Structure formats: C-alpha cells, structure tokens
Model the fold of this input.
Amino acid sequence: MADESRYRDAGVDLEKANTLVSRIRPLVQTTFHANVITDIGGFGGLYSVDCTQMKSPVLVSSTDGVGTKLKVAVWAEKHDTVGIDLVAMCVNDIVVQGARPLFFLDYLAMGSIRLDLVEAIIRGIVAGCKEANCSLIGGETAEMPGFYGENEYDMAGFAVGIVDNPDIIDGSTIRVGHQIIGLASSGLHANGYSLVRRIVFDELGLRPDSYVAECGRTAAEELLEPTRIYVDPVLRIIRQFQVAGMAHITGGGFPDNVSRILPKQCQAVIDRSAWEMPPVFRFLQEAGKVSRDEMYRVFNCGIGYVMVVAALDVDDILGRLAAMGYKAHHIGEITARDPEAPPVRLL
Done:
C-alpha cells in the first residue's frame, strides 16, 4: 500500500486506471463482432478470422494519429469527436487497397488520467469503429506525469483489415483513359491543423464560440467536424465495379497522395473547377493569405477520397454513391505522362 501511495504521489494512479477500464468496458463491447473471442483487459486481443471464402487472404494494416487537431479539442474543451478522426485516418487508408476493416486498437497518452476526458475520447473511437464496422479489441491508456502538460494528450490508432490477394487494389491496372471520381470530404478532416491554428488562434484570435459567418457556425464546430469514414460506400462500390486505384486525400493533398498509386507512364489530371471548394477552405485561404497551390498541397479542399475507374462506369458509380447519400464528383482523368512531367497536374 505504501508503494502504491508513493506511486500515486508521483502522478500515476493505478486505481483510477482500473476504474477507467470498468467504465469503458460496456462501450467497447458494443463494437464486438462474433469474431472477437476475448474481453478487454487481457494481455492481447483475440480475433478469429474466417477465410474459407478467400483464395489467398492478405492482412492489411495501418497506423495513424490525429496530429494537432487535438490542440483544437483542448482549446474547445470538446473531446468526443477526435476518436472518430482517429479511426477514420486508419481505416480509410486500408480500404484504399480493397481491404475490409476487421479490428482496431488505440493508444492514449496523457499527463494525468481524467476519466471524463478519456471516456469522451473512447466514445468517439467506438462511434468510428461502428461506422467502419470493425471491433475495438484493445488499447492502452498511459499516464505519464512530467511528460505531458495539464490537459495535454496524444493518441494513435491501429487498424487491421483483410482482402483476398486477387482483389487487392494497388493502382497497377490504371491506364490512360481511366476517369477520376472524388468523394466529398466533411471538412478539414485531420490534416493541416498547424497552419489552421496559426491562422485561427494566433492571427485572428478567435475563441471556440466565435461565430464564423463564412461557415455558418462556430469556430469549434467547424474545426472539430470529424473526418469522414469512407469504408461503407467504398466496399459497396468495389463489389459492383472494377476500380483500378484509390487514394485517401490527407496531408500533401492530391499531388502527394494520388501520385502514390499511379504507374510511371500515367498522369492524373484533376480539374479543380469540377467541384466547389467548401467555405472553410475559402475562409482559411483568404484570412491566412494562403496561395491556391499551397491550399491544394496542405488540405483536401473538399475531396477526401478518390477512385480511378473506367469511363463507362463513371455515371453509374456517381449514381450509386448519390443513392447511398454520398456526394461525389467526376474530377479528372488519366492521361499519358511525359517523362519530365509531374505525376499529378491540377487545372
């Protein structure tokens, strides 16, 4: 008992950590599929995989974080949506390769465990897992006094999915003449927030409840809009159509993300007039005096996910996405690339 008391005095409360597990267990269990064969609190999460319908099953993994969007959550004292961002950043990356998410794990680190704060974060993670139809089978909450300041925290997520080897989508079948469909983003998603904070906090001096007329809501509401999870519509589309390549538009925008899936002989030509840049991006561009080219290198600018498909399928895919409630646009095409030309050209 004396040792535990000394440990608590040093900033680590083991009883509080145990209380946290008890509080979040019912939440986490709501994400469990029948494949989950262990409860939380064990040394490892167990997940049984049925591969009988696959010729050559391949596991696909991704890890990511939310970056300095967490600073906005602390600024606004609102932590129940960044967990959705965390799940989205991971599962959107694995569905790019045609994988169906199976399970998710999270890591939280903070100076002192605040039960209400952690529970709010976990509620967001649970909501994201449900939307992505994957199970939250484990996690770690690290109490690290002296390392993180008051109310500061960081988190990382880990997603694992599965795809049959013949069904892997990696861009290798992209050809000249293929067309590019862009799925609308929900807003900033989770990239570019160091620049966002510089403009909104430092230069404009806005408060969380400051009304941003250009966006029609408060600064906190706009900046904490969760990242869209594309798993459900993408899995439906790839079951019905041949999709040659896909990209999750995150940091680096179109140039850095679309280029990752293109064969060397192909160039993606994207017409920026094919969709309207959402108000939050126009607001940041004007208020921060950010050049048009830099906007498209830092932010998604309204398109969070792209698919490269056959020209004959464009209208049908757009119609299917609209029927599912997802806004999408025909934003470009694949052309032959000159050796000295960039892989992505923005019009």
